[in-house]
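Hi P.,

Sorry for the delay on this. The queue was packed all week, but I finally got your sequence through. Input first:
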Amino acid sequence: MLCDIRLLLWLRARHARTALVRLVHAGGTDLVEDRSPGERAYQLYLAAIAAVWAALMWAALLDATAAAFAAVGPASSAMALALGLLAPVAVLAWAAVRALRMSPVKLARADMPFVAAGPLGMRAIAGMGCASSMLAGAAAGALAGYVLGVGLESGLG
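Then the structure:
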């Protein structure tokens, strides 16, 4: 079973690397072929710009949320809390219906020979699908909860 998990992790890492290469290619560079020091410095520059942009957008989101909750008052902030607590139920119901309609693992054409070379256990496939969904959901829930908490602190406090 550990070999199955290792193979599925390798495939997910390969997909993530391909997505990163495509994203950086939009910035005008190639992670695979451009290995000169000047190109690596440019790639680091792109990463720094993306990090600064993400930090500024996060700060703007928190500021806008705090201002909106402060403007509507405590009663509407409490109602927003109730709606905020119902949102995970709706998201989980949507995810459950979506999971029933699709395969737990998605393979590219190039991945099929690797998977066909060895039998994959259903426990490993289901476990990897569940773990990746749980990690993504936990990260999104933590960020949304933090934003809701900042808004409630300014709306109720």
